[in-house]
Specification:
Strands 3-2-1-4-5-7-6 form a seven-stranded mixed β-sheet, sandwiched between helices. By secondary structure, the protein is α/β, with parallel strands linked by helices. 41% of the residues lie in helices and 22% in strands.
Length: 233
């Protein structure tokens, strides 16, 4: 279903990634399982092999190419959906302890089935970001989130989970500037340290906002989802 390994390996190398044949075999199995499962349970609108490779797998793994030092220890992926970027990162970096968090149970059922199929050891949690934090505040070395919510709200969901000294990696499209979120980031104990811009094959632009946790998040955050919508930080 995916392009052959030699073609894909050349693509990965062009983006600074080294993906083994064994890892790529697991990605192929992932893609086939996702497309088959998607015929029964809607998980993604991207179902063609090359699109899956570019827009799901490559995009996820570019966190390793650009932020390998920040990816460490305990990693939480918020709003993981069908597993992006958390599952590809778990395949490429098996030493990471990965937790996938999503508010829809149908996605968690898929992620648990995928975990068993691929022989991985990540944890898949059904829960809302503003609630799971009650028992996991500042427990993670790194938090990732891909296109989950507007940046000020996403910061409030994410930064309370990050240990001081850890990182939040926010993956966004090109049309959402970070400036409106800077006040929220500072208030929540973070500091923007880098902005990584790149393009996927075909020209789709992406950006990763790299935020370091420099102080504890005040305990009143995150607020409820309704409060975030009514009064963004």
């Amino acid at each position: 279903m995916l392009p052959n390994y030699n073609e894909a390996a050349a693509l990965f190398r062009a983006y600074g990634l080294d993906v083994s044949c064994e890892t790529y075999g697991s990605l192929e199995e992932y893609a086939e399982f996702l497309v088959d499962y998607n015929t029964r349970v809607n998980l993604t609108s991207i179902t063609q092999g090359e699109e899956i490779l570019h827009k799901h797998f490559l995009d996820s793994l570019l966190l390793e190419a650009h932020c390998s030092e920040q990816l460490r220890g305990e990693l939480l992926d918020i709003g993981s959906g069908a597993g992006f970027p958390g599952v590809p990162l778990a395949l490429l970096r098996p030493e990471l302890s990965v937790t996938l968090l999503d508010s829809l149970n149908k996605r968690i059922v898929f992620l648990e089935a995928l975990r068993d199929r691929l022989g991985l050891s990540y944890t898949a949690v059904h829960g809302r970001a503003e609630e799971y934090v009650r028992t996991h505040r500042e427990c993670f070395d790194c938090v990732t989130a891909r296109a989950v919510a507007a940046l000020p709200r996403l910061a409030e969901y994410s930064l309370p989970y990050v240990k001081p000294g850890g990182f939040w990696l926010a993956m966004k499209g090109p049309n959402e500037p970070v400036r409106p979120a800077l006040q929220a980031i500072r208030l929540l104990g973070g500091e923007l340290t880098d902005t990584v811009e790149y393009s996927l094959p075909g020209g789709d632009k992406r950006v990763i906002y790299v935020v370091k946790k420099i102080s504890h998040t005040p305990t009143k955050y995150p607020r409820s989802s309704g409060q975030m919508k009514q009064k963004p930080l």
